[in-house]
Write a structure and sequence with these properties.
With 213 residues, the chain is an alpha+beta fold. The chain has a domain of 146 residues: Pnp Oxidase, Chain A, CATH 2.30.110.10. Helix content is 32%, strand content 28%. It is built from six helices and eight strands. It has an eight-stranded antiparallel sheet with strand order 6-7-3-2-1-4-5-8, sandwiched between helices. A hairpin with an 8-residue loop joins strand 2 and strand 3. Helix 5 packs antiparallel against helix 6.
Length: 213
């Protein structure tokens, strides 16, 4: 991802917030036979306070990616959406796409079976706890046999990134009144309404306003 200093995200707390809020990640690597991408849930490592993440891939994706042997990129995509040039007023303008994205690069560490199970258990707990009747991994008499078989079909990993490229392109190069118009349109009921993106823009620009106070 090409970086632009005007759009760079560097605040650790903000980067962690984006990762937590958007755990469905894209894993990209470049093996000898060409680029490959996979999609999996990836979480922050709960035992760390940096950008270390944990996840798993299903076999044989570990071999396809050369997991643990070569560098890969994990991409987290935050809110994104279309911005019409008509929202800029009667000026020369082109359409654009506003977005938030975090790229973590490095060579992952392969987890042992018990650590992988803990990550799998945490993933199930994280998403099931919102359900009216959560289904957890170990709650039925025969679940352990099933879960152990499930774990054997996956390969867990931990990635402490050696390179981080994070970007939020949210109209920071536009005048304040234009930004307010874009946010209002995204918060509205038009064909490109996008409340999540509006909230992200509001957050970014409130931060800028605070920095210049």
């Amino acid at each position: 991802m090409r970086q632009n200093p005007s759009f760079a995200m560097t605040d650790l707390a903000e980067l962690r917030r984006v990762i937590v809020g958007n755990p469905w990640a894209t894993i990209v690597s470049a093996p000898d036979d060409g680029l490959v991408a996979s999609h999996y849930v990836v979480l922050l490592d709960e035992d760390r306070d940096d950008l270390t993440v944990v996840g798993h891939v299903g076999r044989p994706d570990d071999l396809i990616h050369g997991l643990g042997e070569r560098e890969l990129i994990v991409v987290f995509q935050g809110p994104h959406g279309y911005v019409s040039p008509g929202w800029y007023g009667d000026v020369a303008a082109v359409p654009t796409w506003n977005y938030v994205s975090v790229h973590l690069s490095g060579v992952p560490e392969i987890l042992g079976a018990e650590d992988n199970l803990r990550v799998l258990d945490r993933m199930v707990e994280l998403f099931e706890k919102r359900m009216p009747a959560p289904r957890r991994m170990w709650e039925r008499p025969n679940d352990e046999v099933f879960v152990r078989r499930l774990e054997a079909g996956t390969v867990g990993f931990r990635l402490t990134p050696t390179k981080v490229v994070a970007k939020r392109k949210l109209s920071q190069n536009k005048p304040a009144e234009t930004v307010e118009t874009v946010i209002a349109e995204l918060d509205g009921d038009g064909p490109y309404a996008n409340p999540a993106l509006a909230a992200e823009m509001r957050r970014a620009h409130e931060g800028r306003a605070g920095n210049h106070a």
